[in-house]
Specification:
Blueprint lengths: L5 E9 L8 H8 L6 E5 L9 H31 L15 H6 L14 H41 L23 E9 L3 H7 L13 E5 L3 E9 L3 H10 L3 E3 L5 H56 L5 E8 L2 H15 L7 E3 L5 E3 L18 E7 L1
Antiparallel strand pairs: 1-7, 1-10, 2-7, 3-5, 3-6, 4-5, 8-9
Helix pairs in contact: 2-4, 2-7, 4-7
């Protein structure tokens, strides 16, 4: 995947947090040396169930978050494979992805707030994953069509041992409508021409004498036809393979010739139609899946905040736009230094006043998630 278009920290802090100046202004002034864009999200108030249900929903939201992140990456891979424009030119509700994320508002008409959090999770994730499945199915069909077209193109450009013969052979090269005789085609390496001409008549019984007819040649092969009794055709072709002659499986008929002549045109048309369909679908899938992922991300922030800070929901939610990975790490460290006390027993201060994992946890320390932060905070990268 290419470099991200934009990088953020999504941060939730309880409104009881005390700063001077007020929290939003403090973040703008103190995080990353003031080189940060701070936007406050106004999260809806969702229908909260029991503590046990919130814990389960937190786990489920984490899994879906990862799953949809992977789906977005797959959509972008498909877009790139189709030689479309870069992802930063893809639109969501008429906005670039970074602007959409920064100005995100909950779509209450699609995901109604009178539904429980569990219902919202299922509704949002099912819609997004159905789109993802449709896209993957269409992409598979397109790849099959593309492979078929490539195989046909290879037949048109290859040597006489592999290329299609529909525009080379003619009816006069074959014995047609015979009850007993059959004409077979062989691609003979140029170095074997003399040995072929000297031996093909005696390769098996009942080969028609002097029936070997040169039809075409290229830089590597001669194409010959040979006529013999049908009864001995399979034996003749088996012996030909042993001698490194290349039998060409071709039975002449006007319908076959017409079909092969149309094969490339039909395959090319099908590949083009599927590519156009996939191009349209990938653009709409990107918009749909990114939108769903934003809803899941904000719902996850809400659930985690309630679990951390309690009820009733009373917290701020900010996105901090930063320039690169180095700025992200610096900003995370600064936030933890300032608000690490919110982590309670899982965090402690070292001698320099920095927040660290609490060494007094002893044997319980292994139970603390190594990625656990003292407050709700997620890294977000947009592509």
């Amino acid at each position: 995947m290419s470099e991200p278009i934009a990088s953020y920290l999504l941060v939730s802090l309880p409104k009881s947090t005390s700063t001077d100046p007020p929290l939003s202004r403090w973040l703008e002034k103190n995080i990353n040396g003031g080189s940060v864009e701070v936007t406050e999200y106004k999260l809806p108030t969702f229908k909260v169930g029991t503590l046990d249900s919130l814990v389960l929903q937190s786990e489920e939201l984490g899994k879906i978050d990862q799953q949809l992140t992977g789906s977005i990456g797959k959509v972008l891979d498909i877009i790139n494979s189709l030689h479309q424009s870069d992802s930063n030119k893809q639109k969501i509700d008429g906005k670039t992805v970074d602007l959409y994320f920064e100005t995100f508002t909950w779509n209450s008409s699609r995901f109604r707030l009178d539904k429980s959090i569990e219902e919202l999770i299922k509704l949002i994730s099912n819609e997004a994953l159905n789109v993802d499945n449709d896209l993957r199915s269409n992409y598979s069909s397109y790849n099959q069509s593309k492979s078929a077209l490539t195989a046909i193109q290879r037949k048109q450009t290859g040597d006489l041992s592999v290329k299609s013969l529909h525009d080379i052979v003619k009816a006069e090269h074959f014995v047609l409508n015979s009850e007993h005789l059959q004409t077979v085609l062989l691609a003979i390496p140029k170095s074997m021409k003399e040995s072929f001409l000297n031996s093909y008549e005696s390769l098996t019984e009942f080969v028609v004498p002097r029936s070997g007819l040169l039809i075409a040649e290229d830089s590597e092969y001669y194409l010959y036809s040979v006529t013999l009794f049908k009864k001995y055709a399979s034996k003749f072709l088996s012996a030909a393979r042993d001698l490194k002659w290349v039998p060409r499986d071709f039975e002449y008929s006007e319908s076959t010739i017409t079909q092969l002549k149309n094969e490339f045109q039909l395959a090319s048309k099908e590949e083009s139609n599927l590519k156009n369909d996939l191009t349209r679908l990938s653009k709409s899938a990107y918009s749909e899946i990114v939108s769903s992922w934003c809803h899941i991300k904000l719902l996850r922030a809400f659930v985690e905040s309630v679990l951390r800070y309690g009820l009733p929901p009373d917290f701020y939610c900010f996105i901090l736009k930063l320039s690169n990975a180095k700025a992200i790490e610096k900003s995370k460290s600064e936030l933890i230094d300032r608000f690490g006390y919110l982590g309670g027993a899982a965090f402690d201060m070292d001698k320099s006043g920095k927040v660290s994992k609490d060494s007094k946890l002893h044997e319980y320390a292994s139970l603390v998630d190594q990625d656990y932060e003292p407050f709700v905070m997620y890294e977000v990268e947009l592509y």
